[in-house]
Amino acid sequence: MKILLVAATDFEISGLESNDIFDVLIGGVGVPATIFNLQKKLVTNHNYSHILQIGFGGIHRDSLNTNNWHLGDLIAISKDAFGDIGALENNSFKTVTDMGLSKQDNWIVNTNIETLNSKKLPVGTAVTCNTITDNNHIISPLRNYWNADIESMEGAAVHYVCNAYNMPFLQIRALTNIIGDRNKNNWKIKTATENIRLYLDTY
Questions:
Q1: Is 4 exposed, middle or buried (0-12, 13-18, 19+ CB in 10 A)?
Q2: What's the confidence (pLDDT) of residue 1?
Q3: In 10 A of CB 82, how many CB atoms?
Q4: Would strands 86-89 and 92-95 be described as parallel, antiparallel, or unpaired?
């Protein structure tokens, strides 16, 4: 069976050569597009060994330093969450689960990561946010609540859909930037893209 390769944009998997291993789904940027396009794909074709989501991600500076990771590195995500669905009040964050509006666990865990992370990439945690920002009044309470390493705009959407369909999956994030730093001159997009390509070429 083939693997369904999911990326938000073509750019993130640029250089990938045609092969018999992957079906490719460009799911779009953000949660709504990813959920819709991935579910649509799985409704019409459920015959995949697993789903591989890969793309860029920002990282908190302290997570980068504590784990001795570097911008450009690839990280496998053990659990993800819809990081900004809830209430932000008095500089603190609550999820809809905290407010009693949902019974869903805050974290969406990948129970297959040990099996599917065959290349033994470093493992981290992530949250998915609808808005990327340099505003520390938003970054800080979300960081304090989740204490996650990495941030993206699509990861939890894939975790959510795959768990709903009981489909094994692996999310990989290439670290492009420090969260909050919007100066693209400091980003390692070229290195991240090259590392994604090398990873996929040897998958």
A1: buried
A2: 85
A3: 21
A4: antiparallel
